Amino acid sequence: MNDLFFIYGPPGSGKTTLGRLLAARLELPFIDLDARIVEKAGRPIATIFAADGEPAFRALETETLRQTVSEGRGIVALGGGALLAPVNRALAEESGRVLCLDASLETLEARVARAPGTRPLLATKAPAAGAAPAPRPLADLLAKRAPHYASFPRRLRIEDVPPETNADAAQIALGAFRVRGMGAAYSVRVGPDWLDPAGDLLRANGCSGRVLLVGDDHTLPLHGPRVAQSLAAAGFDVRQFAIPAGEAAKTIDTVQAIWRALLEARIERGDLVLALGGGIVGDLAGFAAATWLRGVRWVGLPTTLLAMVDSSLGGKTGADLPQGKNLIGAFHPPTLVLADTETLATLPDAEFRAGLAEVVKHGILADPELFDLCAEGFDQLRADATGEFVSRAMAVKIRTIEQDPYEKGLRAALNLGHTIGHGVEAASGFALRHGEAISIGLVAEARMAERMGLAHQGLAELIADVLQGIGLPTKIPAHLDRRSVLDAIQLDKKRAGGVVRFALPVRIGEVRTGITVDPALLEEILR
């Protein structure tokens, strides 16, 4: 599969408008297949149909589609019947991702009426009194093709909203993003089957040479052979290195071990580090890349839900000290992020639940619809084969990163639940999973916001109900020493001027940052 995205649907659904917007956002070529056919034939499509018949046109369409697919990347706007032919559909679905647009007949007819050359699809005039209704060719076409359009797994209902809003929804459906604001922009791809084409995608992103594939002793045996095969087939010289799994390995000693592996693999400035695994692998491999030869490129291949929706994005890398999490680190954005949601099937339920804490957080932060999806419960989310909720959660973080790349203001909203959560996690000796601690932090900080009059009464209970429905804890364990939690909070890396500042929820979809909290209230909330 290549870095190709096909926009398909009935006449008037806005394939070209949406395609151009997506191409600009993703920095990919835009290709109008019908325009290419016209250029190749030297005649309008209507003339080809009239003179040569539909079979001749469809043969030309297939030939043009094959040539387009061979280019390997781009946003392709297809004609309204381009994928009726099984050969064309197979070609598109095997080489990229197809998004089929949908809209009401009234919306489509209004759009067709405004588009040049499409009026034959509309009724020519109103019928006389008592006469049979005038033909509506577009309605007949839609009725005929409705089962065909409905058969595509990725579908997007086009609404009467600004084109940019439809483009936002299309990016989520396709799982395709481009992150800007931290030096060179980088692409993010999320959805099923992004590991197998990893080698070709790295080539398409200008990567070459040697690769050190870093995973842990869980992820490397599970997914390493698949990735290494893809890289080798694309001409990369691949070495692999495994670190111990678990938070206890997130130390400067492990970073030193990766540095030694980089030395043995002869990784130079033009070479590459790949991080295959969860957040710990990504943080450590990314930090090693940031500091090796003063910075080499790295690529994130997150295999846990927590890493996909959180740590793989934004270029924050680092390691822990005994006194606190992530006290050592650097901003070093990846060259590419490939989040293959099929790897989530290998996650134990407890790890999947822990990742959902960050998904809920992103819903609270900026996506009430995502929060509502989480309210459907653990089983529903676990069964989501498309991973669209993962894409939605990643979209929230990407928008936030782009607005504040280096965490000087707005990006601090991503710390929602983390200030108390990190304190709970550290006080537990990391016996609690990160997501479990963040779940507790989300509820505690919502209660704090209620007490301060920032949030409406009942918000904390609403958040707690959703987290409990997923199977996550919402209260600090009774055996944890509250003074240890408070001490860990005071070491939080987000403090400024010696004062810890909180991101607190106001309502679902809104968070305020930079909030100072009365120490007495904080102690009361922790109790």
Describe it for me?
This protein starts with a strand and ends with a helix. Helix 12 packs across helix 13, helix 18 crosses helix 19 and helix 19 runs antiparallel to helix 20. The model has no long low-confidence stretch (mean pLDDT 91). Strands 6-7-14-11-10-8-9 form a seven-stranded mixed beta sheet, with helices on both faces. Strands 2-3-1-4-5 form a five-stranded parallel beta sheet, sandwiched between helices. The protein is globular. Helix content is 47%, strand content 17%. It folds into three domains: 153 residues, Rossmann fold, CATH 3.40.50; 173 residues, 3-Layer(aba) Sandwich (Rossmann fold); 119 residues, Up-down Bundle (Dehydroquinate synthase-like, alpha domain), CATH 1.20.1090. With 527 residues, the protein is an alpha/beta fold. It contains 22 helices and 16 strands.
Short précis:
47% of the residues lie in helices and 17% in strands. The chain is of the alpha/beta class and 527 residues long.
Strand content: 15-25%
- At CATH level 2, the architecture of the largest domain is 3-Layer(aba) Sandwich
* Percentage of residues in helical conformation: 40-55%
**So how many helices?**
22
Contiguous low-pLDDT stretches (5 residues minimum) are: none
**Mean pLDDT over the residues:** 91
Read across the widest sheet, the strand sequence of neighbours is 6-7-14-11-10-8-9
Round the Cα radius of gyration to an integer and report it: 26 Å
By CATH reckoning, the class of the largest domain would read Alpha Beta
Domain count, please report it. Answer: 3
Structure class: alpha/beta
| CATH fold assignment of the largest domain | Rossmann fold
Our measurement of the CA-to-CA distance between the termini, rounded to an integer number of angstroms, reads: 53 Å
Shape: globular
**Major sheet:** 7 strands, mixed
Q: Tell me how many strands there are.
A: 16
